[in-house]
Amino acid sequence: MGFREKYAKLGERYERIDGPLERFFDPLRRKAAGYVAGRVLEVGVGTGFMLPHYPRDIELHAIDAVPEMVEVAKERAEEIGLNARFYVMDAEKLEFPSGSFDTVLSAFVFCTVPDPERAMAEIHRVLKPGGRVILLEHTKSDCRLLNWLFLKPLDVLLGLLLEDNTLRETHLLARKYFEIEHEESHYRGIVRLIVGRKG
Questions:
Q1: I want to staple 135 with a disulfide (CB 3.0 to 4.6 A). Which of 1, 11, 142, 194 is the partner?
Q2: What integer pLDDT is reported at residue 186 of this predicted model?
Q3: Where are the domains of the chain?
Q4: Are 188 and 141 in contact (CB under 8 A)?
């Protein structure tokens, strides 16, 4: 069973699993949303944890590979009065013309994407020249001990449950495609906020 099927089976129950962590992540989500402007694409919207944080003057488009997640996100957008368009779509195959967006944001997505290199290349493609990418992601820690004592056991558990990989080095991958303007490491690198620009 792949990540789509696992997330689809969870549906709204996903929030019961991830929800308790949101008190830690919520301030970082707000900070990430502060960097968006113009025509914005959120890659991997999930059930819509990012939606309440977006400024109301943007043109928001949001994708996810799991239809059940997209439906929950749509309902959340309607509840908060956010105007957004939603699509069922893979991060590795974005069905938008090149140079479509001023900003692309992903939050806790690259730990799940089956082919992160291809997804990053697609984000680069759909951004306008000079456009911004904002990545708020789980990453491998800078601390080896933390990786072995915490992230490795968590990786096994989340791998079985959701096909998540908490030990990916998305921060290094982003540097291959974008000029990094800002990078923050939180919880010893377990979470990073990265802002890059397409040259």
A1: 194
A2: 84
A3: 3-197
A4: yes
User: Distance between CA 139 and CA 171 in Å, rounded?
Assistant: 7
Overall fold of domain 3-197: Rossmann fold (3.40.50)
This prediction has a pTM of 0.81
192 CA to centre of own chain: 11
Closest CA to 168 of 105, 104, 89, 113: 113
Give the single-character DSSP code of 39. E
With vertex at residue 175, the alpha carbon angle to CA 100 and CA 147, rounded to the nearest 5 degrees, is 120
Is the Cα torsion angle 91, 95, 98, 104 positive or negative in sign? negative
> Do residues 188 and 142 make contact, with C-beta atoms less than 8 angstroms apart?
yes
Token code pair at residue 153? 């056991």
- Which residue shows structure tokens 């690259």? 110
Express each pLDDT in 153-177 by its tens digit. 445 444 444 445 666 789 999 999 9
Task: Supply 43's token pair.
Answer: 């890659």
Task: Determine the pLDDT at residue 111.
Answer: 85
CA–CA dist 18, 108 (Å, integer): 11
Stretch (H or E) spanning 121: helix 116-126
For residues 190 and 137, give the distance between their C-alpha atoms in angstroms, rounded to a whole number: 8
